[in-house]
Amino acid sequence: MNDIIWLTMRRLRLPLIVMIIVFFLSVVGLVLIPGVDANGEAVQLSYLDAAYFVAIVATTIGLGEFPYAYTDAQRLYVFFIIMPNVVVWLYSIGTILELLLDPQFRSVMRRSRFEQRVAALPHQFFIVCGFGNTGSMIVNALRLRGYQAVVLEREADVIHGMILQEDLAHVPALSGDVSNRQLLEMAGLMSPLCQGVISITNEDHANLTVAITSKLLRPDLPVMARSETPMTTANMASFGTDHVVDPYEIFAERFLLALNSPIKYLVQDWLISVPGSQLLRPMKPPSGHWILCGLGRFGSPIAARLEEAALPYTIVDVHPDRVSGLANGVLGRGTEASTLLQAGVKNSVGIIAGTGDDVDNLSILMTAHELNPHLFLVARQERQENDMLFAASHANLVAKRSLIVARRILYTCTTPLLQNFRQHLLQEEEDFAHHVE
């Protein structure tokens, strides 16, 4: 509010000064010039009458001479003060309109309204930094489970689209640099009602900054941050970030669980499912030779789990430095039939399309299925708008980055004891998982 007052007074200072001076001189002049009343006797306007008439003149209302008919001297004076008063009023109104349309002023107004809405929240809430596919799922799921959220998002268009959604119109949201300390404080970081900070932007550096800021200002507050590189993950863990979510590492762990115990994987998937999502059907990834296309951030942890499961596999990658020196490496993208044939697709039991491009991954699945219809198909999906394409590809298992992150954060926030049960489930025998099912 102080910023609004300061900005308003700075912009309107000159128009107000000019308007006051012109108005004051006009009123004083009318008071000093004598007039006549209805009986022809000399009379002078009071300051109130003069101020009233000048206001009528300046606003171009034009109700006539007040309170008596004016003398020639008064009319001549009014003739000279009409233009200055009208011009200064138009100048002031134009300045006000310019102020209201100014991006900086509108930004200050948005921040002020946002801060007021956050302060008015009656219940506990989470700060969600980033409102992409993952953020929208988390906010909607929190709302369905009776929790409130405050959203910070870098892109203004995303916030505008969020406001247009009826279910989310009441959620306090602001566009800006989510890693900015002032924005985090405006979002309620220091509020006793704040239950945690969830940072899930697409930039590891932004998530790292949010985690550091939150831990320095509120060491007691739980912080959940997304990370997609081992370096960032280690950095966040070093200063006590409560939950570091690496979607690729999580999927690799769950893929290994599916290989070793499909029933435990199924039960775990049901327990952590997002409200409104379709439950997974039972499946059994086969044992045998696998083909892994892409040895980047996604493929590396998958390769490590295949090693742990003692399964033979061949790596297909377009980068020579990744496959050079590997006995099980094939140079190529995996979208070509010749590359997959060289990798042994005819004798393989499954293929993992793990490149960073959804179209390439879909192409790999289609080409591999043509060459070997009995393959178990696993795919990496980066963009939510491709849901229908991956569903049509008949992939047995799809790694959706946004869904993986949303699931892990949601059950951490809303059902913290579920993690203990998951660990217990992994340690128990298969019969226990069957009973839970």
Report the sheet-strand fraction.
5-15%
What distance lies between the first and last C-alpha atoms, to the nearest angstrom? Answer: 55 Å
Described by strand count, sense and barrel closure, the largest sheet is: 6 strands, parallel
Q: Structural class of the secondary structure composition?
A: alpha/beta
Write the layout of secondary structure elements.
Layout: H1 2-32, E1 35-36, E2 42-43, H2 47-58, H3 72-101, H4 103-119, E3 125-129, H5 133-144, E4 148-153, H6 156-163, E5 173-175, H7 181-186, E6 194-199, H8 204-217, E7 223-226, H9 230-238, E8 243-245, H10 247-260, H11 262-271, E9 290-293, H12 299-308, E10 313-317, H13 320-323, E11 329-331, H14 337-342, E12 350-353, H15 358-371, E13 376-381, H16 387-392, E14 397-400, H17 401-414, H18 418-427, H19 430-436
Parallel strand pairs: 3-4, 3-6, 4-5, 6-7, 7-8, 9-10, 9-12, 10-11, 12-13, 13-14
Antiparallel strand pairs: 1-2
Helix pairs in contact: 1-2, 1-3, 1-4, 5-17, 10-11, 10-12, 10-17
Structure overview:
The structure is a single chain. The protein is α/β, with parallel strands linked by helices and 437 residues long. It is built from 19 helices and 14 strands. Strands 5-4-3-6-7-8 form a 6-stranded parallel beta sheet, sandwiched between helices. Strand 10, helix 13 and strand 11 (329-331) form a beta-alpha-beta unit. Helix 1 (2-32) packs antiparallel against helix 3 (72-101), helix 1 (2-32) crosses helix 4 and helix 10 (247-260) crosses helix 17.
